[in-house]
Amino acid sequence: MELIDGNQIARQVTEELAEEIGKLPENHRPKVAFVRVGEDPASVSYVRKKEKTAAAVGIDSDLHVFPSDIPKEELFAEIDRLNADPSIHGILVQAPLPSHIPDQEAFDRVSAEKDVDGFHRINLGKLCQEDPTGFVACTPSGVIELLDRSGVSIPGKHVVIVGRSLIVGKPLSLLFLRRHPQGDATVTVCHSKTPNLEEITRQADILVAAVGRAEMIKGHMVKPGATVIDVGINRVEDSSRKSGYALKGDVNFEEVSEVASHLTPVPGGVGPMTVAMLMRNTYKAFQIAQD
C-alpha cells in the first residue's frame, strides 16, 4: 500500500507558487482577505494556518475579525467593501458562521471574481459548464491534484464518492466527470439515503469518503487494489491524549490500509492540499485582475 503524503504534495504546490510569485515586484503581489466571525477555536486555527501559508508563498493577507453577534447586514456591508477594494484579489469567509448568517448567503455575497474558495453559485455553474475561468472549491481540486501527482490515472475509472455536500461531494463529482486528462471517469455519488452502500463502494477503482462520520468506511467496503481518498476529519474522544481527543478520518485506516493500493492519512492527507489550492486560486485571481 502506498501512502499519499498530502503534506509533501502540498509543499510541492506551494514551492512552485512561491517561485512564480517571487518573480513579481515587491509592491505588486497577490492579496487575500480572510473574514472570520467569532472565536471558534477551529476557525481561529484554520485561518492562522492559511495566513502562515500565504506569507510563505509571498501572498499578502489581511484578517478581518467580527463579533459573533454581528448583524448579517453589517457583515455583508463589510464584504461589499472588500469586493470594491481593487488591492484585494481574493476573499475567504471562514465557515461555519453563526446560525443567523447562512453560510451560502455569505459565500454568494463575495464577488465571483474574488471567490477563491470556489463556493459562489457562478463558480459552481462554471464548473458544471467546464469553463476554466471559474474558481474550483479547494478541497475537490486538492483531491484531483493528489491523485495526479501520485500517478493515479483517472480516465475510464469508476469513482465512488460518499458524500454530496456543495463544498466537496458535488463539485468533486463534476471534476471527475469533466472531459479532461484528470477527468473522464464514471462517477457514482452516494449519501445517507443510499441503500446497499457496501455493494457500491466495493465497485470503486477510486473511493472518496467525504461524509463526516469517523471511520465509517471499513476494510470490507473497499475493492482490493482501490485508491482511497479520505476527506473526513472528525474529533473523537481520547482520554489518553492531552487534548482529550484524536483526529480520525471517515476511513478506518488500519483496516483499509490492508486492502487499498493507495490511501491518504488523516491528518496529513487532503487537509494540507485544501490550503495549497486556496493559494493557487488567489494567484489565479490576481492574474485575472491584471488582464
From TrEMBL:
Residues 137-287 form the Tetrahydrofolate dehydrogenase/cyclohydrolase NAD(P)-binding domain. GO terms for cellular component: cytosol. It comes from the Bacteria. The keyword Chloroplast does not apply. One of its GO terms (molecular function) is methenyltetrahydrofolate cyclohydrolase activity. The keyword Oxidoreductase applies. NADP(+) binds at residues 163-165, 233. Homodimer. This is Bifunctional protein FolD.
